[in-house]
Amino acid sequence: MKSSKGSFLSIALIAVLTTPVWVTAQVSRSPSPSYVLKDLGTLKDGYNSYIFVGPPSFHVLNNRGTVVFAAGSDLNDRYQPCFTDCSMNHAARWQNDVLTDLRAMGNKTSSAPLAISDNGKFVVGLSENGSYDPLTNYPEYDAILWQRGHKIKNLGTFGGNVSSAVSVNNQGQVVGGATNTTADQYAAGLGPCWSLNCWPAATQWRAFSWKNGAMSDLGTLGTGNDAIAGLVNADGQVAGVSYTNTKPNPTTGVPTQDPFFWEQSTGMVDVGTLGGTLGYPTCLNSKGQLVGQSNLAGDKRYHPFLWQKGKQMQDLGTLGGTSGTAMCINEAGQIVGGAWTKHNNAFHAVLWKNGKAHDLGVLSGYEYSLAYSINSKGQIIGCLTNKLSKGCEVGFLWDHGTMYNLNDLVSENQEDNLIMPLNINDSGEIATWIDIARSFTHAGLMVPQKKH
Length: 452
Known about the structure:
Blueprint: H1 5-12, E1 35-39, E2 45-50, E3 67-76, E4 87-95, E5 98-103, E6 111-116, E7 122-132, E8 139-147, E9 153-156, E10 163-168, E11 174-183, E12 203-211, E13 214-217, E14 227-232, E15 238-243, E16 257-263, E17 267-270, E18 275-284, E19 290-296, E20 302-307, E21 314-315, E22 320-329, E23 335-341, E24 347-353, E25 356-361, E26 368-374, E27 380-385, E28 394-399, E29 402-405, E30 417-424, E31 430-436, E32 440-448
Antiparallel strand pairs: 1-32, 2-3, 3-4, 4-5, 6-7, 7-8, 8-9, 10-11, 11-12, 12-13, 14-15, 15-16, 16-17, 18-19, 19-20, 20-21, 22-23, 23-24, 24-25, 26-27, 27-28, 28-29, 30-31, 31-32
C-alpha cells in the first residue's frame, strides 16, 4: 500500500477548491471534556506508526478500546515501492497498554491491518508475501486474517497476484477484494482507490466473502468485470463497489461504478446512483443502512447518499453548494460527513439528522472541516484545515452542540498535534494520529477521563 503521511492526509479532505468564508462553531459555556492521550508507539525503535485511512471507513477501534495500526521498526522494507515510509511495518494490536506485534507473512516483509472485529477476536488486512507481481513489477500482497491463538492466515486470491481483507465481523466473516487471472485494463481504476490506494493491478478484482476457510466470489453488477467488498455488518450483509459494464466513460476514464449491497438471500444488488457514473459506499450499520457518495449527472458534482433495502437511493443534499460526502452512520441513523456551503464558499462538517442537514461549522482559526465518525451517543470527530490540499491539520470533537479542538482536551499535551481522528467508539475513546514535534507520526488513543 504505497502511502505516506502527506498522501493519507490529502485523501481525507476531498479535493482542492476555492474561496473560504468564515463560520465559527458554537463556543462552549460548560466544562470541556477531558482526555488522557496514549501514544501507542512503534516496534523495535521504529520512528512512525500509522492508522490507515479509507474509504471505506476502516474499523480500527472497537468498543473494547482495542486499536489496530501499522507499527514501524528500525529495519528497512526491501520491497519497493514500500507500504508506508519505507521502514518495515507490521500489523499491531494495542489493548490495555500492551502492544502486540501481529507479524507479517515473510522475512523482512511489511503488513498492515485495516479492521478489527468488535469482540476483538479477529483482525484483517494485508501483508507483502516476498514476491513481485510479474505483471506490474510491484510487490505482491495477500489478504490476511489474524486470529488470537492462531498463526497468520493467508486468505489467498482467485488465482491472481494480489488481495486484501478490508472488514470483518464478530463471526469471523471477512470481506475484501482478490484478483483472478483474467487480464483487465481497468482493474486499478475502482475509485476512489478502492483497489488499495491505487496500487496497480493487471487482472480482474473480485469482491469476496471468506468464512470458515472458504473464499466466495460475490460476483459483479451488470456486465462489469471488477468488484471489491469493503464493509460487513453483524448480520453478514456486505457492501462495496462494482463496475456495471466494460465501457469507459469520457468523464472518468473507467466503466460505470456503482455501490452494491449483498446478502445471502438476494446476492449482489445495485444500490444505484444519483445520476452520475461513479459512486461508492463508506459506512454500513447493523440495520443495513448504507451511506456514501455518488456523482450527479455529468460527473462534475457529487452528493452524499443514504440507501436502505426497499427504497431508492436518497440524496442527502449539501449546505447550499455543489457537492458533499457522507462518511459514517450510527445505529440511530445519524449521518456525518461534509458539504460545500452556498456559492461553494466553504466546506463544512455536516450532521444529517431527521432528514435535515446541520452545519457543524469550524473553530476560530480554521476555514474547512469534515466529520469522519459518529458514535451511539452522537459524539462526532473530524478534521479542521485552512488548505484542503494540505489535508487534516488538527482534529475536532463535536459533543452536545459544541466543537472542541482535540489538542485543548488533553491537558498534558504540549508539543504534539492531534491530527486526523478516525474512529470514536461508544465509550467516547478516539483513535487518532499524533504528529510528534512535526517530525514523526504515531497512532494514538484518547481516553475520556471520568467526571468527579
